[in-house]
Amino acid sequence: MRVRPLAVLVSLVLVAPLGRPAVAQAPGKFPPDSLVNTKVFPHNTPVTEVLGVMRNFTSDLGVRCGFCHVGKEGAPISSYDFASDEKRTKKTARQMMLMLAEVNRRLDTLPERKNPGLAATCGTCHRGVNRPVPLYTYVGDVAAAAGVDSAVRTYHALRDRYYGRDSYDFGEPSLNIAAFRLARAGKFDEALALLKLNEEYFPKSSGMYVFRGNVLLMRADTNGAAEAYREAVRRDTTNNEAKGRLKAIGRQP
Question: Which stretches of the chain score pLDDT less than 70?
Answer without folding.
Answer: 1-27
